[in-house]
L-lysine N6-monooxygenase MbtG
Amino acid sequence: MPERLGVTPPPEGDGQALPHHQVAGLGAGPANLSLAALAADELPEGIALFEKREGPAWHPGLLGAGTQLQTSWIKDLVSLADPRNRLSFLNYLVTTGRIYAFLNAQYDSIPRLEYARYLAWASGELGCVRYGTAVEQVDFQGGRFVLHGTAGPVATADHVVFGLGTRPEVPACFEDRDIEGVVLAEHLEGHLTTVAAKPYEQVIVVGGGQTGAECVLNLLQRGYRDIRWIGRRPWFAPMDDSPSANDFYRPTYLRFFQGLPEGVRERYAAEQTLTSDGVSMATLQQLYQANYEASLREGRSPVMMLPGRSVVEAANRHGTIALWCERDWGGRERHAARFVVLATGRRATPLPLGAGLLELMETDTSHEPVIDSDYSIRWKHSETNRMYVQNRSRVGHGLADPNLSLLAVRSAVILNSLLDRQVFAIRDEQMSTVWA
Ligand SMILES: Cc1cc2nc3c(=O)[nH]c(=O)nc-3n(C[C@H](O)[C@H](O)[C@H](O)COP(=O)(O)OP(=O)(O)OC[C@H]3O[C@@H](n4cnc5c(N)ncnc54)[C@H](O)[C@@H]3O)c2cc1C
């Protein structure tokens, strides 16, 4: 084992020894669970994960009936790098006794709820997650990282991996304002169980992506009959899941992409967005068919589609929410509803870096840490103490970075780098597309 992974004695802090870990992961979403799963056989102590949630959960408000993974279940936490790993999805199905029922259900895509259950199972098997521990700040003192929780330091580590995921992003006119009747998509399910359904009450869903489409469907299925769906793009764009689009989600393309000049990477990341952020074809068909069938039965379509509009102003006047939208082709229009659902995307959770630590890092023009091709942050003491970041660099590492597609591959790259040897071979040799 290389020296930088050597075990160092735990420090004394206020008379109390803090637990010390070789590698600590912040966040226990799929990214860090994948890393911990692949590391389990390679690091004697494994990886300690710190998770702010009180127990296992994966996007808990967004697992409603009919919601499915947009990624093949073969792309689980481990299989693309280590198909023999015991934490594969297949092993989860076999050991929980569900394999035959699952096979006979003949899914093209698995329910999101099943994926959440799989992650919870993997977390239990690993036993390395400290739940209910939000890491508020990371500092570097005396040759090690100190992780601070809400009530003081919780642990030290030689190396840290940030896997903090994303949080909802809302248009500027909703930011820092609590407008009554405006709910985030992830709270819609909870909201609907607390209010009496009023089918002819107007509802607006803002956000033309997968989550927005699912909110519209959910409302339709609950009997709402006056739904307006607002999206920024000029149409409710489907996700491109074609074979050629999927070429972007291969290790070979990832290496090609990482080697491109920044300007080209920026352009490609923008041009390839719909291979990741569009609405899945099945959801669009379901929605259009439900809307059409309702018009046959009831004489009018319950969903009004409003693409090409950006919400720029919002106000609650006497219990009605008014939204002003700028139209893509010019001019403004106003829409009103009793309640509004925001499904307007997600952005990276800020890294909880102490000011001293930030100063030791190389940053880019937007003051973000520079992330190398092995997902490590470029900083002063990286020879001895490593920091890695998952799911934070669309422009640096391509559209696969915020997705589950190459989860196991990214974990393998990080572990190879951390251990200074090729523990996992990443093979992707059968390419018909020539990139360079
Ligand atoms: C509803 C939904 C469905 C998706 N479906 C797909 C899909 O089908 N296919 C696909 O490729 N991608 C999908 N994605 C995108 C992406 O793959 C997921 O968001 C995925 O969960 C990202 O994994 P992650 O581990 O990076 O982040 P997360 O899953 O967000 O996990 C991060 C974890 O860090 C914790 N955390 C945050 N801050 C702290 C802190 N300070 N201290 C301790 N813990 C902290 C959070 O509580 C969270 O549990 C989906 C996204 C959403 C929102």
